[in-house]
Specification:
The chain contains 16 helices and 34 strands. By secondary structure, it is of the alpha+beta class. It folds into three domains: 155 residues, Aldehyde oxidase/xanthine dehydrogenase, molybdopterin binding domain (Aldehyde Oxidoreductase, domain 4), CATH 3.30.365; 177 residues, Aldehyde oxidase/xanthine dehydrogenase, molybdopterin binding domain (Aldehyde Oxidoreductase, domain 4, 2-Layer Sandwich), CATH 3.30.365.10; 350 residues, 2-Layer Sandwich (Aldehyde Oxidoreductase, domain 4), CATH 3.30.365. The strands form nine sheets. It has a seven-stranded mixed β-sheet with strand order 3-5-1-14-11-12-13, sandwiched between helices. Strands 7, 8, 9, 16, 17 and 18 form a six-stranded mixed β-sheet that branches. Bound molecules: dioxothiomolybdenum(VI) ion. Dioxothiomolybdenum(VI) ion binds next to loops. Dioxothiomolybdenum(VI) ion (MOS) binds next to loops. It comes from Methylobacterium soli.
């Protein structure tokens, strides 16, 4: 089904199942430990052995020799595969780093060997017997030191984008020079690590030349192609299965060393092999959110109209890596006739920087929304009012292009009202509660709404059960549930008549879980397949499909009412379709909006920061399941609080690695750090986003929330910290 025009009425709009707060159908399996994660797939294939991955101990250079004799002779060892005996393997989709093969070391803890043994302990013990000779080379590890040599990155909109990588609208420099009120400030955000509960893990088994990987991956379609490319085997000979994923956040968008080395270890040992990346390897072997240096300039009239806005960001990465797109929201969030955005990329020999929840917007809004707070203060304007005054209903860089829906102002006003914003003292450092300095802060939230082609297959059996199969993943987001809700609504059955099967590359290729596009796109694919199944049912029953009503387990037409299962009495009916969205983005800018409000207390003696209250108001189209959507938003708010206050990979700039590579040294918020969080969704239906009329919401919650925390800390203390996270040493 090609979807590129505004959606009229359709069966989803009945909202008998869709749009209702529904418990996650996988919730009981996950919370009782009966949902098998990749490393626990003990029963899928017998005789599994264990692989232990060895990472390089240098950040850059060459491996001269790997001495494996002692390891091979150790108890239980079945095989050792080293990078030197393996040709450099191709890279998978969207990755800059090579995962294995050859002698070149691009970054610390790049995989250089896998040891396979009967038990995990034997594999680990033997791995410590491997000796490696390196030829180390000098590397570049310090973003601040390399920023001067950073290269411009061409912008993504051709218009106004010169070879210098700067995107311009109007005359920024002229307007900024002429503006009566201006801000010019530079901020930094830290490298952040993925810290999902389930590490990257894979069980690999060969049957002849056919490879099956039971793995933990967000994007089965990409992973399927990547494994074939990396290992140089046809796609038809590869199967990936990833039904349960214990968190992804962008770190599992890609095939990583666990999958590749499980496959190589299995081939070498002649046994199925399971590999999990240890916590230290997640920090330095996989991908992370890159640090940024960002400069924001804003010029405004005395009454707070922005006339000039510029946002420039520098980040670092490996040679073929991408920049952190931290300026993207600044192209779209506020009005202003004169604009400039630019990104620069420095070469760093650190582990690969890549996607982490709301890549771009999360660190970008951390900065832009603090700059907006600083500017509001200069203008003596309430920060909510300043944002409302600079709302735009059209894309500021593309004349005439409207947002499909945009109610940022509604989010700001409702949030201010519900949070009690009027009680905030605009003068910092005035509010006290015992030994706590108390402050309130707010920020706008913005995240793009991408749509991706997505396929599904649906089958009806004679008991009226509807089975959905798609390679969509559920990374803790609630995909199982919203897909079941969609199929139930379309086929007129209750949720318990729907079976959802996900994450298998044998199923139709879906959007996958990424960029907050999965929920809207994957349910739209299921919608498309259900439209076809409804037609097949009507045809089988001799009913005109246009008149057919699917409700309460029946198909009704005129005065006829047939139990749905009867259509499959002669055998199951099945239908498959893929929804595509070609052209939609060209007509409308699609984005999601929100407003964050935060109250903090800062201990007047120790500068300890405690978050006391948080509220998010979100406008993200139709909310398919308010319960799982709320969980996504509070998860984002928690993660953004981490970015504001504690998350920071410590770069050892001499040895070239992330030193705090475990959950003792890399701090993330825990329950005691987070108060009760409130989330309000505006009652909104996006008329053009998809047949579901929904948008993404999984990343919106993290966007802007860190700035709201930082602005609250400023309001509490009067100390403006521009280097994040705001650890207490920066407040003393
Ligand atoms: Mo998301 S960072 O695209 O999983």
């Amino acid at each position: 089904m090609k979807f590129d025009t505004p959606a009229g009425q359709n069966p989803i709009d009945q909202l008998k199942v869709v749009g209702r707060a529904t418990d996650r159908i996988d919730g009981k399996y996950k919370t009782t430990g009966t949902a098998p994660y990749a490393y626990e797939r003990h029963d899928v294939v017998p005789n599994q052995a264990y692989g232990y991955v060895l990472g390089a101990a240098i950040p850059k250079g060459r491996v001269r020799a790997i001495h494996v004799e002692a390891a091979k002779a150790a108890p239980g060892v079945l095989a050792v595969v080293t990078t030197l005996e393996t040709p450099r393997l191709e890279r998978g989709t969207m990755n800059a780093a090579y995962l294995f093969g050859g002698d070149a070391i691009q970054h610390y803890h790049q995989a250089i060997a896998v040891v396979v043994a009967e038990t995990f302990e034997q594999a680990r013990a033997a791995a410590f017997l491997v000796r490696v000779d390196y030829a180390a080379e000098a590397g570049r590890f310090d973003l601040a030191a390399e920023a001067g040599a950073a290269k411009p990155v061409p912008g993504d909109s051709g218009e106004g984008s010169g070879g210098d990588g700067i995107e311009r609208v109007g005359d920024f420099e002229g307007a900024f020079a002429a503006a009566p009120v201006t801000l010019d400030a530079t901020y930094t955000t830290a490298d952040e690590s993925h810290a999902m509960m389930e590490p990257h893990a894979t069980v690999a088994a060969w049957e002849g030349d056919t490879l099956t990987l039971w793995t933990s991956n967000q994007m089965i379609g990409w992973g399927h192609g990547s494994i074939a490319k990396i290992l140089g085997i046809p796609k038809e000979k590869v199967r990936l299965d990833s039904p349960y994923v214990g968190g992804g956040f962008g770190g599992k968008l890609f095939v990583r060393a666990d999958a590749v080395l499980a496959a190589l270890g299995a081939k070498a040992s002649g046994r199925p092999v399971k590999v999990a990346l240890t916590r230290p390897l997640i920090a330095n072997n996989t991908t992370h959110r890159p640090a940024t240096i960002q400069r924001v300039r804003i010029g405004a009239t005395q009454d707070g109209q922005i006339t000039a806005i510029a946002h420039e960001s520098t980040s670092g990465n490996l040679a073929d890596g991408s920049p952190e797109t931290a300026v993207n929201q600044t192209k779209l969030l506020y009005a202003g006739a004169n604009r400039l955005t630019a990104m620069k990329l420095a070469h760093l020999d650190l582990p690969e920087g890549n996607a982490m929840r709301a890549p771009g917007e999360a660190p970008g809004l951390m900065v832009l929304e603090v700059a907006m707070d600083e500017m509001a203060e200069k203008l003596r304007l309430d920060p909510v009012e300043f944002r409302i005054r600079n709302d735009t209903q059209t894309d500021p860089k593309t004349p005439g292009r409207r947002f499909s829906q945009r109610d940022l102002v509604g989010c700001l006003r409702l949030g201010a009202d519900k949070f009690g914003w009027s009680r905030r003292n605009p003068t910092p450092g005035q509010a006290r509660d015992g030994s706590w300095l108390v402050g309130m802060g707010m920020a706008a939230a913005f995240r793009n709404n991408l749509v991706m082609k997505s396929g599904a297959r649906v089958r009806l059996d004679d008991r009226g059960t509807v089975t959905v199969e798609t390679d969509m993943t559920d990374i803790g987001t609630g995909s199982y549930t919203i897909i079941a809700q969609t199929a139930a609504e379309m086929m007129g059955v209750t949720l318990d008549r729907v079976v959802v099967r996900l994450g298998d590359s044998a199923f139709p290729v879906s959007a996958g879980s990424g960029g907050q596009f999965g929920g809207n796109s994957a349910t739209s694919g299921v919608y498309a397949a259900c439209v076809k199944l409804r037609e097949a049912v009507a045809q089988r029953l001799g009913i005109n499909s246009v008149d057919a009503v699917f409700a309460e387990g029946e198909v009704r037409s005129g005065n006829r009412a047939v139990p749905l299962g009867e259509a499959a009495a002669q055998g199951p009916l099945s239908a498959e379709d893929t929804i595509t969205f070609a052209g939609l983005d060209k007509t409308y800018q699609q984005s999601t909006f929100g407003a964050h409000f935060v109250e903090v207390g800062v201990d007047v003696d120790t500068a300890e920061v405690r978050v006391r209250r948080m509220l998010a108001v979100c406008a993200a189209g139709r909310i398919l399941n308010p319960k799982s959507a709320r969980s996504q938003v509070i998860g984002g708010m928690t993660m953004g609080t981490g970015a504001a206050l504690m998350e920071e990979l410590a770069v050892d700039t001499r040895r070239g690695f992330f030193a705090n590579h475990d959950l003792a040294g890399y701090e993330v918020p825990v329950h005691a750090d987070i108060p009760h969080q409130e989330v309000i969704f505006l009652d909104e239906v996006d008329p053009v986003s998809s047949p579901m009329k929904a948008k993404g919401v999984g990343e919106l919650g993290i966007c802007g929330v860190g700035a709201a925390v930082a602005n609250a800390v400023y309001n509490a203390t009067g100390v403006r910290v521009r280097d994040y996270p705001i650890t207490l040493d920066k407040l003393l």
